[in-house]
């Protein structure tokens, strides 16, 4: 069955006589979409996908009033299902990893000794290290380091007793301070790009 | 703090893309369906949706979710009309 946005809204409303069949249809469509979206993720097996769809349905039905009709309903619903499924995959991947260990551990890519032509690049990198060490708060440093090492925001948030949006804000504030610090030292975006594009 | 120079170079790239005001991940989620459909249709991106594009450029997790959505969009059926 094909439904337009108005038909989905009407069919999923609590008063609708078609609600059960509409929810079943949405479940099947979300399952199909998640299979495709996560086809390259080995941990996203059928049981995982079914659980993710069930959680997604609860979230979507609770947020129907937030759907403004600016996209197709199924696209909107699929974005929510992907967010829920990927957040869970990331949580499982990182749940047994200590935030302190991630922040303290050396990065896998280590710097090789720089040739003479990299002097300017190294100067910018050293300025970054200085700004990170002297101008960021401890939480900003922690979030920035953990994220650059690939740790999931949801797990960083859990360790900090926070949430994904707050983690994003810490990261954003840290990037803004870095940008200001570099600009104050004479490194604007154009000059940095010129140095690293050589 | 133990980021290698290579990681700092990646971070430098993100710093260059940083705006004073950015959407957070929840705000991006609210708009990304519309953004994805515009992109797929080859429509020009409105000023409001340019903030989504900027967020996707600096947030690896939202970008990963967007790429997953892109894999789906061509095949979406059962919801063909936006009325």
- Rg of chain A, Cα atoms, Å: 23 Å
> CATH top level of the largest domain in chain A?
Mainly Alpha
Total discrete domains of chain A:
2
Largest contact between protein chains? A-B, 70 and 49 residues
End-to-end Cα distance of chain A, whole Å, is 56 Å
**What is the H/E string of chain A?**
HHHHHHHHHH
Count of separate DSSP helical elements of chain A = 10
Proportion in helices of chain A: 55-70%
The name of the CATH topology of the largest domain in chain A is Rna Polymerase Sigma Factor, Chain: A
Q: What's the N-to-C terminus distance of chain B?
A: 52 Å
Helix content of chain B: 55-70%
Q: Which architecture of the largest domain in chain A would the CATH scheme give at its second level?
A: Orthogonal Bundle
Q: Could you tell me the strand content of chain A as a percent range?
A: under 5%
Strand content of chain B: under 5%
Walk me through the structure.
The complex is a heterodimer of chains A (198) and B (83). Chain A has two domains: 5-94, Rna Polymerase Sigma Factor, Chain: A (Orthogonal Bundle), CATH 1.10.1740; 102-106 and 114-197, Arc Repressor Mutant, subunit A (Orthogonal Bundle), CATH 1.10.10. Chain A is 70% helix and 0% strand. Chain A has helices spanning 5-12, 19-37, 46-62, 73-94, 99-104, 119-135, 138-148, 153-160, 164-184, 189-197. In chain A, helix 2 (19-37) packs across helix 3. Chain A is elongated and about 70 Å long. In chain A, 35% of the residues are buried. The mean pLDDT of chain A is 91. Chain B is mostly helical. Chain B has a domain at 21-73. The longest helix of chain B has 17 residues, at 25-41. Classes of the chains: A mainly alpha (198), B mainly alpha (83).
């Amino acid at each position: 069955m094909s439904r337009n946005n108005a038909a989905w809204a009407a069919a999923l409303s609590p008063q609708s006589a078609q609600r059960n069949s509409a929810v079943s249809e949405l479940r099947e469509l979300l399952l199909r979409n998640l299979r495709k979206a996560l086809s390259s993720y080995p941990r996203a097996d059928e049981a995982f996908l079914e659980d993710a769809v069930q959680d997604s349905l609860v979230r979507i039905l609770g947020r129907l009033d937030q759907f403004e009709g600016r996209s197709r309903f199924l696209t909107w619903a699929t974005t929510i299902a992907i967010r829920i499924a990927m957040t869970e995959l990331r949580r499982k991947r990182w749940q047994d990893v200590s935030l302190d260990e991630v922040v303290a551990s050396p990065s896998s890519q280590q710097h090789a000794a720089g040739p003479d032509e990299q002097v300017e690049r190294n100067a910018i990198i050293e300025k970054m290290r200085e700004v990170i060490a002297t101008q960021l708060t401890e939480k900003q440093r922690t979030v920035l380091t953990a994220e650059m090492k690939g740790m999931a925001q949801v797990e960083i948030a859990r360790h900090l007793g926070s949430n994904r949006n707050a983690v994003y804000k810490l990261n954003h504030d840290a990037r803004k301070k870095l940008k200001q610090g570099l600009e104050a030292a004479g490194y604007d975006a154009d000059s940095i790009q010129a140095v690293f594009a050589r | 703090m133990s980021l290698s120079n290579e990681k700092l170079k990646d971070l430098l790239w993100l710093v260059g893309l940083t705006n004073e005001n950015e959407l957070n991940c929840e705000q991006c989620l609210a708009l990304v369906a519309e953004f994805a459909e515009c992109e797929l249709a080859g429509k020009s991106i409105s000023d409001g949706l340019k903030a989504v594009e900027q967020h996707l450029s600096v947030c690896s997790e939202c970008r990963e979710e967007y790429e997953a959505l892109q894999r789906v969009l061509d095949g979406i059926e059962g919801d063909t009309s936006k009325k």
